[in-house]
Amino acid sequence: MNYYNEIDPKAAAWLAELMADNLISEGKIDTRDIRFGQGEAQMYLTPRNAGHGHPRALDLFCGAGGASMGLHRAGFDVTGVDIAPQRHYPFRFIQAEATSFDVRGYDLIWASPPCQAFTLANHRARTAGKSKHPNLIPVTRALLSAGSGGTPYIIENVPTAPLEAPIMLCGTMFGLGVFRHRHFESNVPLVAPAHVNHAGRIGDGKFFCVAGGAGRWKSWGKVKRNVTKGTVAEWRRAMGSDWMTGKELTQAIPPAYAECLGRQVMKLLRESVK
């Protein structure tokens, strides 16, 4: 078993004390700064996840906390970061710019940069090169790749976003009342549940479109729909997010998505310390 020191000069001594007290398995302690390591990112044990409390997760661009709730249910102690105040966010919250936040000291970093640049609603402006929405995925990926010291990370966005080798999750995988396909990029292996054909459609009373405002969906461009989008109460049940407002729900992912992926990362973290 190898233990990695990350960037804390006191971590190696602390790990040696844990080993001497038989609190962790015998192994070799690498005292080098992990930022100067070569090759693939290493899974490592540091003071933050050595059995003293829950592993720590950082949720960048957290919004009202859809992903954070899922990570909490997966067993993480979660801190959320967003540039806007989030009065309904249910966990520890820091109002700050996510793309320049210090991401060191966490066991998992989740990031959901704004998706507006890649949505269907922005398709015409995007293809014409007139989109006013920034693409923050490259700067987010650079932050997580360079600043996390090998910590597992997950980047979430809509299917048309330029993520690398993503997996896709759908609400039907978790018995939810939304389809809400989302893609997830990670530096650790992740697996999605089986995706079956949708047994229903938006507006049938079982599945809902959680976007824009509640009420009736009269048209999409030139396509006439005239179906109910549902009430905010129905949106909350469909998404599994009972603490959010309607507007907050439109910007969120169902907690079940982050719980599914968070449990996989939690398993990797536990296996790394055996």
Quick structural summary:
With 274 residues, this protein is of the alpha/beta class. The chain folds into 2 domains: 1-53, no CATH class; 54-194 and 253-272, Vaccinia Virus protein VP39 (Rossmann fold), CATH 3.40.50.150.
Question: Which key terms come to mind for this protein?
Answer:
274 residues; alpha/beta; 2 domains; Rossmann fold; 19% strand; two-stranded parallel sheet
CATH topology of the largest domain: Rossmann fold
Largest sheet: 7 strands, mixed
How many DSSP-defined strands?
11
Structural class: alpha/beta
Net shape: globular
Q: CATH-wise, what's the superfamily of the largest domain?
A: Vaccinia Virus protein VP39
Low-pLDDT parts are 1-9, 32-52, 219-224
Architecture per CATH nomenclature, i.e. the level-2 architecture of the largest domain = 3-Layer(aba) Sandwich
Overall tally of domains: 2
Number of helical regions: 7
Report the β-strand fraction as a percent range.
15-25%
Average predicted confidence as pLDDT:
80
Helix % is 10-25%
Give a verbal description of the structure.
The chain is α/β, with parallel strands linked by helices. It folds into two domains: 1-53, no CATH class; 54-194 and 253-272, 3-Layer(aba) Sandwich (Rossmann fold). The protein has seven helices and eleven strands. The protein has helices spanning 11-20, 66-73, 123-127, 137-147, 232-239, 246-250, 255-272; strands at 2-4, 28-30, 56-60, 77-82, 92-95, 108-111, 153-157, 167-169, 182-186, 215-220, 223-230. Strands 5-4-3-6-7-9-8 form a seven-stranded mixed beta sheet, sandwiched between helices. Helix 2 (66-73) links the parallel strand 3 (56-60) and strand 4 (77-82). Helix 2 crosses helix 7 (255-272). The longest helix is centred in the C-terminal third of the chain and has 18 residues, at 255-272. The radius of gyration is 20 Å and the shape is globular. The N and C termini lie close together (8 Å). 38% of the residues are buried.
